[in-house]
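Task: fold both queries, return tokens.
Query 1:
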Amino acid sequence: MYGAILGDVIGAPFEFDRGNKSKEFPLFAERPDFTDDTVMTIAVCDGILKAGLDSGENEIKRAIVKAMHGWAEKYPFRGYGGRFFDWLVKKSEEPYGSFGNGSAMRVSSAGWLFESLERTREVARWSAEVTHNHPEGVKGAESVAAAIWLSRNGKSKDEVKEYVAREFGYDLSRTCDQIRPTYRHVESCQETVPQAFAAFFEGNDFEDVVRTAVSLGGDSDTLTDIAAAMAEAFYGVPENLKERALELLPSDMRDVLKAFEEKLFSKKSFYGWQDADCAPVNPAYSKIKNPRQLYDLLSGIWSAQTCAPRMRQDWTPENKTLGQCSITAFLAQDIFGGKVYGILRDGGNYHCYNVVPTASGDRLFDLTSEQFGDEKLCYQNNPEQFRDVHFAKEEKRLRYEALKAELEKALGL
């Protein structure tokens, strides 16, 4: 959600066409602050988390409505739209047929929290329908959440664009240069979401997406919120900008972000996942942002066929990392560089893991550590492992090549 928050803060000074439609501007205003976009982004996330990720429609909708009212009471003067403000004042729990862009700007957490695209779209739809139950309002939320899900799962921008155009019917053919001259402040999904997609598709990195979105003009905080939310899923957010976002938020909002990240990473329980922040050094794998995303992708690829033959009879989907260590570690080395080390096990075999140097220190991670359950492994003073030694075994080399081929297939390479 850092992307959405930063987009809101950076775009807010240029709302109501107050910018000069240029990408050249100080990234942060002299006194940067968040608007209703951030408040409602936090509220939707808070509602989903409190309802529980596996809850049904009624439970999630009730929790989101309650969270929206609660957060708006805490932060009442943040630029809420007229009809939404009226909904808040009346403490309403009924939708009012809006197709405003608020449904799309607050939905980013739904794009991250769920395993499947179908569930992502479902919860995004519910998050819109509590107020913005017009088909265009629903479409705006669903399309943005879907783009976030697709981007964080390694899809290319072309693939995201094709999916959104096919599923939601948006005309995404216009470039930012075509949009910019006549675009003005408008607060509908129909005239904000396609423009946010254009900025996302044309930007070259996270900051460039933000600057491109601001340069379009219009409802700049919301448009940039939406574009930056998608950019975060595709590029990640630089650490210095994450830190800046946290500095600008009050402690209760930071608490929601912390709970969001804990939930997001709770299923990534491989050793070292918390600090696995290294980026790929191999440009062929630029779609993979970090080892956590690699783990997510491999979780759907590891199988009995890629498991070491001596362990194959014990492999199950519940113990998916069993017998996958060396081929996984060397594949991770292909992507992130660094070295592979091995922990000597009974029987003379080595359990392999990765160490990758970064500007802020070494990143040690073991993508297949879960197979050992509660056993504590020692990751210190272990010998380096070399692929020519491991792949001297033909069956291991073939398993590595099969794992690599399936990963590249999943990435569309």
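Query 1 returned. Query 2:
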Amino acid sequence: MTDPMELVERLDYSATANRGLGRDGLVTLLTEAAACIRDLVEWRPIDTAPKDGVVIDVWREDGGRDTVFWGMPFHECGEMGRYCDSDWHRIRSPGWVCNTFNEFLGRNHNPFTHWRPLPTPPSKADKGGA
């Protein structure tokens, strides 16, 4: 996928610099823009979701949304594990984990029907507003 911000810069540059891209150049740029937008906003079937630890946006069959990742929940035992009463120690293989609450949801979490990538976060240079 083309980096969305790189594409925005190319579109801005083409418009503001009054560059003559020609018909073929313009068609190529607009085709890339359409594909990039589609990649960012289009929901995909859950069975195509990445299972490499990347956080994604998921759609549930009840119409709700969550942010999750495939992996193991993060957990640190207090006092070197002596006083831990967490049932997380019984989790032996990765599954869906709620990114907000670090809750292990399991391997076959049926309510998820679709997914899409999260948008690119703001850079440190962005101070909000334009």
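Both queries returned. Flag for query 2: The beta strands are 44-45, 56-60, 65-71, 95-98, 104-106, 112-117.
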